[in-house]
Fold this protein.
Amino acid sequence: MELVNTHAHTALCGHGEGSVEELVASAVAAGVGTLAVTEHYPLTPRYDPDEFLSMPARYLEEYCDTVERVRTGNPGIEILLGCEFDWLGTAEDRDLSAVDFARFELVLGSVHFVDGWAFDSPSSRGRWEELGADYIWDRYFDTWCEAVLSDLPFTVMAHPDLAKKFGHYPSFGLEKHYQKAAEACRVAGRMVEVNTSGAHYACKEMYPAPALLREFCRAGVPCTLGTDAHHPDNAARGIQDGYHLLYECGYREVTVPTREGDRRRVTIE
């Protein structure tokens, strides 16, 4: 079946490697049929003073132009121009309008910040001990559901249970949060993703956990798949395993956003 990757990055963000050209070449070599290049949308110095977490604003036009040029030269693969946009809620300090999103064919909605700090950044790991896993998990899912129910034009909600990245879990069961997350997506008509990168972090598990993915499936939430590649070599990493997880959790098809803003479906074989 077609290999789909709707989440990938380059060296234009401070923690990625490789160019758009190298990412696409790797995807083509691996047989990927659809690739969304989704660089981290620029943050302000307040949230990203070292230009490590996101793509600097001065690169935005270059990024968009490069993706357009590279896909013109690679007609054998469907390439979407996308971005990964951090939900900051009431702490949003960027002056945004519909025009800022109009150029993108796919917008990943992400929650990397809880109460203003990047909970999944290695430099912030000490705050997990300070605040405690129970508090962080509660705030994470509250914030994630706020993003889902917002009026921002998110195409796909990325890595739904990112809070598990470092392997820290709460003392309570997560069922209520899983049900709340699935219901929010159902009400808002959002898509989610299986993100294969989680298998390579301390949590040793793709995002989302099987129990959460089953809740999404029961709620009828469409699901796509991304590798969250930050290096060209990972353009197809774990895609087949991701399809297996989708199937095991009840999905029989992967949903693929299109350049025109529609959705198509690929049967999981």
User: Anything to note?
Assistant: The mean pLDDT is 97. The chain is about 30% helix and 20% strand. The helical segments are 20-30, 60-72, 98-102, 126-131, 133-148, 175-188, 210-218, 239-248.
